[in-house]
Amino acid sequence: MTELNISGREANGARRQAKRAAARNVDIDLGPLDNWIGFYLRLAQSASFQAFTREARGVDLSPGRFATLMIIGRNPGISQTALSRANARDKSSLTPVLEDLERRRLIRRVRPKDDRRSYQLQLTPSGDRLLQELTACADKHDRNLDRIIGPRERARFLKTLKKVVAKLQEGGDANGADE
Amino acid sequence: MTELNISGREANGARRQAKRAAARNVDIDLGPLDNWIGFYLRLAQSASFQAFTREARGVDLSPGRFATLMIIGRNPGISQTALSRANARDKSSLTPVLEDLERRRLIRRVRPKDDRRSYQLQLTPSGDRLLQELTACADKHDRNLDRIIGPRERARFLKTLKKVVAKLQEGGDANGADE
DNA sequence: TATTGTTATACTCTATAACTATA
DNA sequence: TATAGTTATAGAGTATAACAATA
User: Which nucleotide has the least CA–C1' distance to A89?
Assistant: First the structure.
């Protein structure tokens, strides 16, 4: 680091530059944050979320609900409990979501004869159409990520992401697999 | 826990088993979801969030606020606007957070003479102590991730994560971040 | 006019605990 | 007793728009 300022004019220039840099989020010292996975996971998650939303502008369904729709579409007859687990969310979080999807005629809930506590979830035709539409958006978003990451690194990256999810969830399930 | 299925209940037993498998989130077909970065980013983010919270149990500060504290600690005198940018959140989201941190005597807000619209943020001694404490928790969490990912892959992974953030944000900034 | 931070407000996502209706 | 789903409720986190003070 240079510590000599030759002229006042240069110092001013440098200061202005630093200010603009700060405004652009350069020159902010993140400290250990800059080396922590969790911090960047948060940023990446929200950036990806927003990018998908941009891709799917005009389609009125959030990424989270899209995932819900997809899981139902791929697993017709799935129960709410199983769905909530696939989504890693509490079942109570699902109730208002499914209510909404049902009200919009995107899904149906069927009471099976053999267990009348549960529901079997399935897409309606229009739910299926919306799913197709969103899948196309997601594909586009995904190709975008491919361009950013590169196909080879992408495979590695996804694999690691999955590993992190699996191991952390395993450790976090009720039983402390904690040290 | 042991469940023996006696007599003519084989079908039932198999059904129960399938049910347990589904309950464990095995056998759920995620379709394209299983190959989408965004989906696993969400899961990884929330798993990491929870793991950190477990690590920092007893310390009353969320990961998000920890990041805020860290940025202030590393950049004494930073303004709220610059902080909100470093955090990729709107400045209005910051107001209640900073109010809370100030009420708890973890940060101070100083009005600089030369621009009395802004605040200069800094940690109090006890804010600094808490930051140290949380940093230790985060280190532990991080070593945990190291065990999961492996140090070499970890570097790659983080690099990719950063690239994704940079590129997606660049594309998504309504106002071009350049110039 | 532009910028810094606040206010008012609202929306999404999520969880916990108690509940119901079945099983 | 145990399980599937709902209700009631609460809280965190976030954003938009209008605003006051200051530049």
Answer: C14
Q: Is the pTM of this model over 0.70?
A: yes
| Rounded Cα gap, residues B63 and B75, in angstroms | 18
Reported residue count of chain B is 179
Measured CA to CA in angstroms, residue B23 lies from A53, A80, A88, B129 at distances of: 30, 10, 11, 43
Q: What is the pLDDT of residues A143-160, one digit of tens each?
A: 999 999 999 999 999 999
Nucleic strand D within 7 A of Cβ A97: no
Closest residue (Cα, C1') to C13: A93
Q: How far A167 CA sits from the closest chain B CA (Å)?
A: 7
Residues with Cβ within 8 Å of residue A69, at least 6 apart in sequence: A61, A101, A106, A107, A123, A127, A130, A131, A134
pLDDT at B58: 86
B6 φ/ψ angles, rounded to the nearest 5 degrees: -95, 160
For the stretch B66-98, pLDDT in tens is: 999 999 999 999 999 999 999 999 999 999 999
Question: Residue A109 in 3-state DSSP?
Answer: strand
Helix, strand, or coil (residue A88): coil
Task: List the structure tokens of A118.
Answer: 């549960």
* Token couple for B139: 């280190």
**Residue B46 CB in 7 A reach of strand D:** no
A89 is near strand C: CB distance < 7 Å: yes
**CA dist list (Å): B40 to B19, B48, B176:** 24, 12, 28
Question: Could you say which of B24, B47, B149 has the minimum Cβ distance to residue A160?
Answer: B149
User: Rounded to a whole number, what is the distance in Å from the CA of A130 to chain B's nearest CA?
Assistant: 15
User: In angstroms, rounded to a whole number, what is the distance separating the alpha carbons of residues B126 and B104?
Assistant: 9
Maximal CA-CA distance, chain A: 86
